[in-house]
Every structure is written in structure tokens, then in C-alpha cells.
Design a protein that fits this description.
Elements (H helix, E strand, L loop, with lengths): L1 E3 L7 E2 L15 E4 L7 E8 L7 E9 L4 E2 L7 E2 L19 E10 L11 H8 L3 E11 L2
Parallel strand pairs: 2-9
Antiparallel strand pairs: 1-3, 3-6, 4-5, 4-8, 5-7, 8-9
């Protein structure tokens, strides 16, 4: 699988529009080479450079098998992020340049929503269902 964005290149800066400084909306994502056996997708966006440990910005699951996630969209069921909300929370680092990992997973089934509350429970629920995955890293500094 391959994950990219028309809004920023891998290991490049994420435009302000997609951060807390701008409109705080999700960027568009392009998903390529999805396994034919895939029945759903899951997406986790997190920041491992946060001072108090990894900060989760977005958790989405039961995304239909699609090749594009549009900007400012809700492509599937959402779980709670580190902001305590079920939505996309854009990059907003307190200081320095942080890395934001956009991780997409192709799964062999849909997941039971009642089992998923956050990133940890999503990772547990999908661990035996992952067919393939891909990653895109964006950077941001206020």
C-alpha cells in the first residue's frame, strides 16, 4: 500500500490550513495499492514527539475501501483522540518541529464499533485483521 497527500509530501511541512493555526481540518489523503481482500480501512494520526508521550490527533475506522479521503471529511466511524473528542484535531505543537504520522490500515473485515473507544482499543481490535498498511509523515512547527 501507499499513502500520500496532494496537500504535502512525505517528511514535508503540513500547510497551516490543516493545523490549529488555520482551519483545523484534515488534509486529503490518497490510498493506493489496497489489497483486493480488504473490507474496510482504519486511520490513525499521531504525534510521537509530544512532550508527555504520543499525542493522538485522529482515530477513524470502518472506512469504506476507497482510494481518496477528502479534505475536511469524516470518512468513517471516529474514536476519541487525545483532545478528548471524536474528530480530527490538527497539529498544534507547544514548541519545536513535530512529526505527524498518518497511518492507514487495510483490514479483512469491518470492526465492531462497541469495542472501539480510542487508539489503543482500535489497535487491539484490528491486530488480527490487518492485511497491509502504509504511512505518511508530515511536519509542523508553530
Amino acid at each position: 500500500m501507499k499513502l500520500s497527500s496532494p496537500d504535502f509530501a512525505n517528511n514535508e511541512f503540513i500547510p497551516e490550513k490543516f493545523t490549529c493555526v488555520g482551519e483545523d481540518i484534515n488534509p486529503a489523503l490518497i490510498i493506493e495499492s489496497i489489497p483486493k481482500e480488504a473490507r474496510s480501512l482504519a486511520l490513525i494520526v499521531d504525534d510521537p514527539d509530544a512532550p508527555m508521550g504520543t499525542w493522538v490527533h485522529w482515530v477513524v475506522f470502518n472506512i469504506p475501501v476507497i482510494s481518496k479521503i477528502d479534505a475536511n471529511s469524516i470518512p468513517g466511524a471516529q474514536a476519541i483522540n487525545s483532545f478528548g473528542r471524536e474528530n480530527y484535531g490538527g497539529p498544534c505543537p507547544p514548541s519545536g518541529t513535530h512529526r505527524y504520522f498518518f497511518k492507514i490500515y487495510a483490514l479483512d473485515s469491518e470492526l465492531e464499533p462497541s469495542q472501539i473507544q480510542d487508539k489503543t482499543s482500535l489497535e487491539k481490535a484490528m491486530q488480527t485483521h490487518i492485511l497491509d498498511s502504509a504511512e505518511l509523515i508530515g511536519l509542523f512547527k508553530k
